[in-house]
What does this fold into?
Amino acid sequence: MPLTSTSPAALAPPPFTERRYLLTFVFVVSLFMLWGLGVTMADVLNKHFQQVLHVSKANSAYVQAATFGAYFVMGLPAGWFMQRFGYQKGVLLGLGLYSLGAFLFVPACNAASFPLLLGALFVLACGLGTLEAVAHPFLDGLGDPASSDRRITFSHAINGIGAVSGPLIGGYFVLRGTHAAGDLSAVKTLYTIIGTVVGSIGLAFAFVKVPPLNAEHSPETPLAAPSETPTDLVADKKLFQHRHFVWACVAQLFNTAAQGGTWAYFINYGTDYMGQQPGPAIQGFWQVGALLSRTVALAPGLPHLAPEVAAYFFSLSLVGMMLGRFLGTYLMQFIAPNRLLAAVAVANMGLCVVVAQHWGWVSFGALIGLNFCFSIMFPTIYSLGLKDLGRHKQLASSFIVMGVVGAALFPRFVMGPVANHSVAQAYYLPIICYVVVFLFALRGYRVQRA
It folds into this structure.
């Protein structure tokens, strides 16, 4: 019996993308950076509004409710819009709403009105939600479907650049120094600049010629006959008959709930607990943290972290998230994405326990480490949920984006009341979310072809 061999080409991973898609790919990836900036800037505003407008910790979480509630509101409209007008016009709609919301901060800041500021943030976040709903299936179509996990995870690594920039910019321009009650001049100036930059990028993208995407993303592509490949059979099912997609929506809801809660109270955790002297067993970690505080964050040292310094540490944690996504992009060539997802979910359960103990720099280090483990969660759940959906991918993307509403509800209505009494104890609650993500990674991700 003759031996058969597999050619090296057959064993090689599929190409990352194609040359004809490079320019479009660069623009789409830049969108990930833009909404990373917009989302983490909201966490800086959370603390700033507590200081300047005298809003409580729980009520300041309405910042997250406005931001991520907009994702829920715009999820389906964005999906219908891109089905009707295409990906490029969907991107332009998202950038237009983003820019408009940024400019609406000007009258809201002049009025020093918390509800008006939330309204401006809601419009801006409608743009973010539109971009996110459009960019994922857009990116999925810019090459071989088999390499979509790598493209999406890489793009979320670039998203990390924007996410890191948000707390750095916000900490320097908004939180630095003392501010009189009602003084929102720094916020007004910053968002005027953001609106101008985003609007300019939208104008440039309007002139980009987008090549045809792969056939699976073309609405005009007819459905295949049932006698063809298993993927065609899967794509012929109704959207909510795809069990792995439904699981992805649920997993994304809980994932973003944990992420939104972690980010909403990060700066509060730094300002509330970093002045506590630790026991002798962890004194060495305390001294390392003190040195890091002075050299990296330009802090005056212990016993307390100023809000702007805590924001710099938040930015440092997002560097870890960005590096984790680059690492995840590489590891997914050798390790199944669902296995990586399961591993980081378990790791974050343990880290949350450490954070809740408020052991000085040990717990603060665990809080920083949560973002490293967050790194691959959102893009991996997204890409696994979109597998083998065929003509449903555009609408499926919208429903998964709507799961981001978890980040609107969890910080305000679940973690918020606990955080009013103890920010540290509130970090026990995200463990529930990671259990759901783990179950998705264990079994829920599987595509049922029957």
Remarks:
- The radius of gyration is 22 Å.
- The first helix runs from residue 8 to 11.
- The chain has one domain: 18-218+227-444.
